Amino acid sequence: MEKFRRIGILTSGGDAPGMNACYRAAARCCLARGIVVYGIKEGYKGLIEDNMKLVTSTIDVNNLINRSGTVLYTARCDEFKTEDGMQKAIAVCKKNQIDGIIAIGGDGTFRGATDLSERGIPTIGIPGTIDNDIPASDYTIGFDTAVNTVISMVDRLRDTCESHARCDVVEVMGHWSGNIAVYAGIATGAIATAIKELPFDEAKAMEDIKRARLAGKRSFIVIVSEGLKGFAEPLAQRIQEQTGVETKFCRLAHVQRGGTPTLRDRVMATRMGVEAVDQLLKGQSNVVVCELDGKITTVGIERALKVDRYFKGKCTPEELAAFKPEEMKWIQERSDYVKSTMQMLYTIANEVKA
Ligand code: F6P
Question: Which one of the listed residues 115, 131, 144, 265 is annotated catalytic?
């Protein structure tokens, strides 16, 4: 407890609704425990450049629970990936007497966090990305808001598709994960959903559209995850050619990253922010706050990064050989669980339709 005098909080990577709520909760928690807190601007770049703001009172983090984007801003920082950059960041921490960091973001953010931890600055990660693509955690801050944004946009498309008897192929975000797509596919009643992780039966989708049209259905929505690079737009063209249904293409893009955070994101962000402060004060470092089986807990960042690489098929044979048996067991089980959940949602998305 005594060790911590000052904590710095940063957001890094793509912004996500709820990041501000998380910053607010962690900052207020620090203030309540008599710890000085700094908001570090523009992620690791701000840490290197000593760009940070002292949070003087709870008023400084006022009206943030409902605000999207990140008031701390975010930036890419290649310099931080170098030893030189890292040492600059550590020097800035020492100069400002910052002896703990909370880093909110995705896998890239956690890589930076583990580098800092290993160099003597205790750092805790919090998963914040709309993609929900951190396999060590069941949930990442921003996902619920993003999927709700997709739902409300697609409902609008549905209105006009119904009027004109059209189909709309909608590309949603998720560079590495089809999570947004499968949830949105189910929740918007899409006739077909395509993601990178699992095979898409295009011929069946065409047949389904033709059959439903013959049965009198006027409007169709097809959801495609952006992980399938360059797939959605030509698919729209093929649907029009092969089914005779006029088909438009729509890429929702960055609109998915904005918008008022939902209940789930506000509460999850707050719980995770408080947990990160508690963990730092308990002497924890180099861990990421996760939601597992409905509980807020922590997983070692190294392990979280390993399961991430394993899940995405990025591990080299040397890396795999170096995993300890107990670690490998957890990584495999976790990875299998995330995969089977995706498979289950994908099946539902493509089976429950007109
Ligand atoms: O926030 C995650 C994500 O939305 C990914 O799905 C997407 O590939 C990426 O960010 C794009 O972000 P940017 O355009 O800011 O690089």
Answer: 131
